[in-house]
Amino acid sequence: MTYNRIAVYGHRGWVSSAIFAALVQSGAPVKVLYRPSSDISDLPEGVTSVEVDVEDQQAVEAALQDVDIVISLVGQEGVPRQHGLVKAIPETNVKLFVPSDLAFRCDAQGLRVPINQLKFEVEEAAKKAGIAMTIVLPGFFAESFLSTGMVGVDVSENRIVFSGDSGHQVVNICTREYVAAAYAAIFAKTPILELENKVFGLSEVQATGEDVATALEKRHSAPPTTFRHSLEEVDRQIQDRLDKGQPLANAWYCRRIWGAGKIPELIGSDIWEVDGYSKKSLEELIVDDKLVAYREGSPAFQAAVEKMFY
């Protein structure tokens, strides 16, 4: 079986750096597309790189002529730049585009959140251009889900917010390590015909809010402090932030879909399993503290999240 030739756009972020490393370790030939401001001094030996402005269509086309799969791993600020890739890909030999998503499908309410709408517009543009895509949906990253408090779980402070029926509804979380392994397993060797226009969910841990609360109690030898928000209150918070153009509307939306029991359908039923991978359990992540540190937010961000616990 031969390797797919892969180009990665966005290789330095908290998530993307791990995925990039796993793709390189898979043995597949990897090319990095990078902006002039990016640091490529620590690229592994054997990885080729091309400085390119994605708004320069001819330059992008030239960089992609020997590529089978383009994987975009840009963060939120880079999502609109993917339109440059979409414009160029039809004029190349690229067979598959993997846009940056790394979350879950959004319903109509979620698409009102600007970042979700921007991701949707990239996918729609790719479809209109006739580009085959693969979408990868891990749900929530365990590292941010369990440590930032954005979705209502704060391991270090032993507290949890139950939104709607989240105590009894399933949340889907994956560690960064698992997502990286999945990207390598999916894209390094799988024939592209088996990947075209597919949406793959990833699932390392599935748990209810009550499961999380039980694990918190085991870790701290005391029941967690609990708060409760009705779905009506969550909807009000989403709308208020959208109306005012304030951040964290998406965090409230994440609480909403958990509390409404919608996460399984937004991940989908086509779950990719990574052969031979030993998945982490909820107890390992919370009780045994085997959670990789997440990037630290600004004081303003942390203060805004703190207000979401009351």
From TrEMBL:
The NmrA-like domain, residue ranges: 4-223
Listed SUPFAM superfamilies: NAD(P)-binding Rossmann-fold domains
Protein name: NmrA-like family protein
InterPro entries, per the entry: NAD(P)-bd_dom_sf, NmrA-like, NmrA/Isoflavone_reductase-like
Keyword Oxidoreductase: yes
Keywords: NADP, Oxidoreductase
Any Pfam family the entry gives: NmrA
PANTHER family: NMRA-LIKE DOMAIN-CONTAINING PROTEIN-RELATED, NMRA-LIKE FAMILY PROTEIN
Domain of life: Eukaryota
One Gene Ontology MF term: oxidoreductase activity
